[in-house]
């Protein structure tokens, strides 16, 4: 019964002309199962979302006309980067792995070190980062938008109160974040089992895996599961041994460099993080300058984790098996009490993690072709 309802919804979802890209932004009844019912994702203006979507896919806004948000947050890879480290304009390699931005609407902070506190603030940063869009400044972005056919009209539709269709930086960040708030993914097998009363949504092995995730493995201590929703993150920062062993004797120099930089605003901290892999490995410390935060990173959500690899802040772990082994081993050390899984339990835990792939993730992928062709209708100056 529920399955057939879902198929009808999926059909409506794919062919309805009212949806902007992902989640239908004008009603809360379609909220994917298992996500929190947050005010910020409701009542989004579809013209604002349409503008944000254009910008998200538009390569012509980057210095070499090859880079867009979608290039690193690849919609066919659950909006994560299939490469360990992302490449920006002119092939420059960044220092961190680009995570999935599905459900980033619910993040309490943005980036692996939480250096940005909102999607609005985050949205402008990639444009002026040399290892991302590589533009000189925000003015250069505005010039490019003005020179491109179509944007004037999109801005006018999105901000009707500005009669002349003024193109502004705040308009860019508002529209990109509105679009990101439509990128929701829930309704996974786990959700249907836990929140949808579908007792047969999980196999026996996956149910055991869920039990290990919450019990023996202590995973849900940080990758949270709540009574009426689950984001699989606590939004907090925790120690990670990943990357630290490589840093070893260079640690004092990296710490010194951060303290000397005294970076205060989020954009400046971003530039500092991208300046070297040693500094990027310091994690939350670069934001707080507090020694206890050295090597602490934000708990990533595990939604869609089976399809978002490679893993961890530096993309250094290529398979889910390795990631789970590392987490089991490493978190064992942190709690002081060993977590010992039998080979069967390990497989059950892995099997459970594959149930976190949202059924809407595939639907979002189906919309890429439409979004791409909409973008290419913009005049490209190359
Ligand atoms: C060159 C690759 C690249 C481009 C282009 C890019 N990003 Fe990212 N993005 C990243 C990386 C790498 C991170 C993680 C950086 C960090 O944590 O220090 C990230 C992080 C984010 C986050 C934070 C997610 C979280 O869970 O903390 C959001 C949101 C985001 N990007 C949105 C965007 C938007 C919107 C655009 C386009 C305006 C964009 N990105 C362009 C690589 C890229
Ligand atoms: C103390 C908090 C904490 C606990 C407990 C914990 N994790 Fe994590 N997990 C994290 C943090 C923080 C990261 C990111 C580390 C990094 O990138 O350096 C992470 C990363 C991961 C990743 C990689 C995700 C990605 O997208 O890169 C997986 C998979 C994972 N954890 C699974 C588990 C499993 C399975 C358990 C239980 C055995 C577990 N975690 C227990 C905090 C925790």
From TrEMBL:
Its cofactor is heme. Heme c 2 binds at residues 219, 222-223. One of its GO terms (molecular function) is heme binding. Keywords: Heme, Iron, Metal-binding, Oxidoreductase, Periplasm, Peroxidase, Signal. InterPro entries: Cyt_c-like_dom, Cyt_c-like_dom_sf, Cytochrome_c_Peroxidase/MauG, Di-haem_cyt_c_peroxidsae, MauG/Cytc_peroxidase. Heme c 1 binds at residues 69, 72-73. It is found in: Periplasm. Residues 204-334 form the Cytochrome c domain. It comes from the Bacteria. SUPFAM superfamilies: Cytochrome c (SSF46626). Binds 2 heme groups. Binds 2 heme groups per subunit. Residues 1-22 form the signal peptide. One of its GO terms (cellular component) is periplasmic space. This is Cytochrome c551 peroxidase. It comes from Caballeronia sordidicola.
